[in-house]
Amino acid sequence: MQEHHARHLHWDFRLEKDGVLKSWAVPKGVPEKKLVRRLAIQVEDHELDYLGFEGEIAEGEYGAGTVSIWDSGTYDMVSESEKSIVVALSGERLQGKYSLVHLKDSQWLLIKL
Questions:
Q1: Minimal CA–CA distance to 9: which of 21, 22, 26, 23?
Q2: Of 3, 4, 41, which Cα lies nearest the Cα of 24?
Q3: What is the pTM of this model?
Q4: What is the mean predicted confidence (pLDDT) over 82-92?
Q5: What is the 3-state secondary structure (H, E, C) of the chain?
Q6: What backbone torsions phi and psi does residue 43 show, to the nearest 5 degrees?
Q7: Would you list the domain boundaries of the chain?
């Protein structure tokens, strides 16, 4: 999980899968209380090298701004379908089950279960 001070502050929620980082931008941050729902916009996959990135992305580059690690850890896939992904997070800050529910296009809801 990266805190990303770009044009608009958001958090980048990333799950390593199939050799890439599946990624969602979460404008209001990942919920830490049960059943709180947050919009998560799926963005392009990132390379695994990006997992530990902290620093400045130069003006004029995609995602320009400051990136810092907000949380890190591991996850276990609980279930996965086209409409829903459920993971159990074991992070330094985030613990427990989370669900990503596909709404339409690139829009998902991120919910702490």
A1: 26
A2: 41
A3: 0.91
A4: 96
A5: CEEEECCCEEEEEEEEECCEEEEEEECCCCCCCCCCEEEEEEEEEEEHHHHHCCEEECCCCCCCEEEEECCCEEEEEEEECCCEEEEEEEECCCEEEEEEEEEECCEEEEEEC
A6: -115, 180
A7: 2-70+101-112
